[in-house]
Amino acid sequence: MGRKDRSLSKGALYGIIIVIIVVIIVGGVAAYYATKKPITTTSTTTSSTTTSTATTTTTSTTTSITSTTPTTFSTLSPVATSTYASVAGTPINFVLSSFTPSSNRYALFYAGNGKVINTTSQYVNVTYNYPGHYLVYYNVYQSGSLMGSSLSNLIEITVAPNVPSSLSDLVTVPTITFNITRNPTAPIFSTGETVYLSGGFLQPPSGQNMTIYEYVWNFGNGQTMTVMANQTTLLPEENPVNVTYSSPGLYAVSLTVITKNVSSGKTYNYTTYQSIAVSGINMAFSLFEFSSSVPNPGVIQVAENQPGGPYSLDPDIDYEVVGFEVIANVYQTLLLYNGSNTTSFIPYAAAEVPTVQNGLIKNNYTEYIFPIRSGLYFSNGDPVTAYDVWYSIIRALLFVGGLPGTPDWIIAQYLIPNVTAGVPIVSSPNDTQAFEEIMNSVTYNNQTNEVIFHLWRPTAPQALYTALADPLSTGILDAKWLEQVGAGINFTPAGFYQYEQQANVGNYNQVVEWSPMGSGPYMVKSLSPGQSIVLAPNPYYPGLPDIPKPNDTVIIYWVKDPNTAYEMFASGQADILEDIPTQYIPLVEQLESKGQAKIYTFPALTELFYVFNANISQPNLKALGAQYSIPSYYFANPLVRKAFAYAFNYTEYLNDILGDVKYHFDFGNYYCGVIIPGLPNYIPPTELTGCPTFNLTYAKQLMEESGFYNISVNFPIVIFSGDITDFTGAQMWSQLLNEMDPNIKATPIYMPGSTMMSYWVPGLNGQPIFTGGWIADFPLDSDFTNAMYLQGGFFPAAAGWNVSYFENLSKYFASQGNSYLANLFANESQEYEELNNLINLANNAALSGNNALAAKYYKEAEQIAVNLYLYVYTYQENMYWIIKPYMIPYKNQISYQENPMIGGGGDSLFYWWFKG
After folding, report:
1. Recorded GO terms, molecular function (predicted)?
2. Which residues pair with 194 in a beta bridge?
3. Which mean pLDDT values do the consecutive 10-residue runs of the chain (916 residues) have?
4. What is residue 293's predicted lDDT score, i.e. its pLDDT?
5. Measured between alpha carbons, how far is 853 from 91 in angstroms, rounded to an integer?
6. Which of 168, 312, 740, 741 could form a disulfide with 529 if both were Cys (CB 3.0 to 4.6 A apart)?
């Protein structure tokens, strides 16, 4: 969509002059009395395409009804529709349920987008080209006289965005929300009432040099308004805006966001609509009340404060909570956690859970046999076979070495000895040993439709099953489809080695990444990259015990601005609100007190922290800002990290910034060391030495001891966009760091999560300090220690923690004659190597069932890690669900949505939600 004239057409909503109608309700029947006085209502003719065999009334058409005889008219049944949720550009079929075509009879269908369709058919077909919330109704006429209307039975249609991929980084999807405090009856209003409209957006344009330039309102009554965007927040400078309607009618309000390339000056635009029904003395609009009093039945709308959307939708690549939610609903796994239980599993694609008793676990817990259910199909109709499961596991093993880090080590650790996250298993085109290890690790039998896992060492079922219940790394893909889209595997050593390259950023298969072909209860119907996604029920999914076939369409909006996400929920445009900052809880509690929301809190295996980057990429640091300057090895110095840890005010962060005391809500708790409460070998901070507390005097002393006190640095602290809590915490920390050492200038900056993670490649990460969080992949200590401490683990790889790197720094400073720093880095290298050794010993002991020995090694490892100050630990999170009161969990038990393994409890399994 190129540069476009922003002048929007104006015209009549009805396009006709109709009589004033006086309504008298007697015994539930509406009596309409026609008079000669006409009503003229104006509105905008939109650019939406309307397809019908009927005639579309235009703005220049007027019709006069002049009957003077009082006539009784009926209240018509609401419009029946093929769907209450659609995607922009997709036709919707409407049935005018109370209209029976006959001679001299016609109907006017009001589409809510400024179009009025004159039809003699009972059926109307409409295509909405832009997203929005559209109110629809119809009038029926006989020989020019109004017989009845469904205006008191308005139906709302939700249309999700469908931004073409060619424009996805150039445009922004606008949002229109109401202030329900000022306008409690929205979207129904009265003439003369002031309507308050808030403009916002889902995500800013991600293209280079792109920004939001201005907002153009069209109120549907001939009035327009242009508001410039604030170039800091990108929100409108004037927000909300207000408008008053003097005449009753259905108005199509639109908001167009103009985005601009600040380099070339080229502009782009995208529009959202919101129907507004204005009642007057002669026209009483109201929404149709469904029997369950649930708005928009069949449509679950989710507002997630997740800037940038998911990193990927490929289960072998994505390793974060936003993509996880989609993947968990689209892809089947062999097993599934049984509700909120982390040690009990139910069969999913598997026909049953293997046990020793049923003969499916053999050879001293090294052979696990999984028979595959019959009657399962991918969303394209291909059958799910044992071959597909086998193919998917092989692909996961070939993606272990992907950069940024992938989740595939989770299953690989049980199948391949000495596997390391971030390191490819096949090291060369001639690596026949690794090829054979992979081929022998999992096999299939098409005759019996079984998949057999051959573990390299005895492993308890609970440990293996946690991996097989995780859709990241074990989501089942369609082998035939993979080959069709260019992601087929060549089963030779050279083919494996070549295929491993697809696991690296820049080499991803775009079809697999963004157009999933899963076998789960849902399928991707439409994706607007980074903005929103529509999940529709998979027509081939049969429904399974405790995993029902869904009926609801799900629309997920990934919203950058938390206030916009909150307003969407508060005004009824979202049924579930996720990832909202803690300062919004008081507002949600106000909604709860009015019966407009429910809040559920529960503990999670989730920890949050700031990460020190030991090896800062100078080119990519400059890419963040030319003004930044810091030595690449600044945070390799353990005393610098320790000084920074003691310069953080943990009490202020928890009580005031996170808000435990400020908002009287238990958002989270202080922790020290990555093995947190809820894991088998949790070590309380009281049993560890060196857990930091806020002590600025001691911090300054440490900084002076580090040898880096006199180095002037200017660097960013990179925060996930929308994470107000950690941004505010970083602001507090920056001020304290400058007090500790005036040579330090630290500046918090926001970055979308998907962009942020693209930097997390060893040697290429230019982020000196960045926020991180770890949500359990499986409820064992090794999941946390491996990912957060072990060399090659997810965060150590991203942060440059490497024994050889520290050794080389020691040699460098020795060559410069600085024996103090040389010894400091040499000791650090030895300590980090010892930490790695202890973790491996602990993991081996845990897998062998020697829990006492595992506990001993984990505690020793944790103590070394705490003393290395690799992180600034902030809090262990308590999760909370914010839902509308009519959202019902499976079996009416909210625990089904509270399993800490499902995105830490912050992601929905939508087949376990029911609307109404």
Report:
1. peptide transmembrane transporter activity
2. 244
3. 25 26 26 25 35 38 31 80 91 93 94 96 96 97 93 95 91 95 95 97 92 97 97 93 96 98 96 97 88 84 92 96 96 95 94 97 97 97 98 98 93 94 95 98 96 95 94 97 98 98 96 96 96 97 96 96 94 94 92 92 91 97 96 98 98 96 92 94 95 97 96 96 92 98 96 87 94 90 94 93 97 96 97 97 88 96 97 94 95 91 85 93
4. 77
5. 64
6. 168
Tell me the torsion sign for CA atoms 577, 582, 588, 589: positive
Give the Cα separation of 279 and 151 in Å (integer). 10
Q: For residue 669, what is the enclosing H or E element?
A: strand 668-669
Query: How many contiguous H segments (helices) and E segments (strands) does the chain have?
Result: 22, 40
d(CA 716, CA 646): 19
Between CA 27 and CA 893 the distance in angstroms is 42
* Paired tokens of 485: 């889209």
| DSSP letter string, 705-732 | HHT-TT--EEEEEEEETT-HHHHHHHHH
Q: Which residues contact 371 (CB under 8 A, 6 or more apart)?
A: 350, 351, 352, 360, 448, 449, 450
Question: pLDDT at position 27, please?
Answer: 25
Query: CA-CA distances (angstroms) from residue 430 to 369, 442, 451, 487, 503?
Result: 31, 21, 27, 21, 19
Can you give the pTM of this predicted structure? 0.81
pLDDT at 849: 79
Whose structure tokens read 């193919």?
391
What is the reported pLDDT for 752?
A: 85
- Quote the CA–CA distance of 334 and 349 in Å, as a whole number: 5
State the Cα–Cα distance between residues 753 and 320, nearest whole angstrom: 9
Query: HSE-up of 745 (CA within 13 Å, CB side)?
Result: 6
Domains of the chain, each with CATH number or no CATH: 18-198+241-251+274-289 (2.60.40.10), 321-558+886-915 (3.90.76.10), 602-876 (3.10.105.10)
Taking the CB of residue 143, how many other CB atoms lie within 10 A of it?
A: 11
Give me the sign of the Cα torsion angle 141, 142, 146, 152: negative
Strand order in the sheet with 241-244: 174-178, 194-201, 241-244
Whole-angstrom CA distances from 646 to 70, 613, 614, 675, 721 are 83, 17, 18, 21, 26
Written as six digits, the tokens of 552 are 């609801």
Q: How many CA atoms lie within 13 A of 269 on its CB side?
A: 17
Name which of 139, 238, 152, 148 is nearest 188 in CA terms.
Answer: 152
Query: Whole-angstrom Cα distance, residue 85 to residue 277?
Result: 20
3-state secondary structure of 377: strand
Amino acid identity, position 815: S
Q: What are phi and psi of 581, to 5 degrees?
A: -60, 155
DSSP 805-864: HHHHHHHHHHHTT-HHHHHHHHHHHHHHHHHHHHHHHHHHHHHHT-HHHHHHHHHHHHHH
Contact in structure between 201 and 174 (CB atoms under 8 Å): yes
User: Beta strand 123-127 with 91-95: parallel, antiparallel or unpaired?
Assistant: antiparallel
Q: Tell me how far apart the alpha carbons of residues 195 and 98 are, in angstroms, rounded to a whole number.
A: 32
Give which of 263, 282, 267 is closest to 30, Cα–Cα.
282
Q: How long a stretch of residues is the chain?
A: 916
Residue 362 backbone class (left: φ over 0; alpha: ψ -120 to 50; beta: rest):
beta
Q: What is the pLDDT of residue 778?
A: 87
Q: Which residue has the tokens 């081996």?
A: 844
For residue 484, give both structure tokens: 């069709």
What is the predicted pLDDT for the residue at 61?
A: 29
What's the rounded Cα separation, in Å, for the pair 905 and 880? 8
Of all helices (H) and strands (E), which one includes residue 557?
Answer: strand 553-558
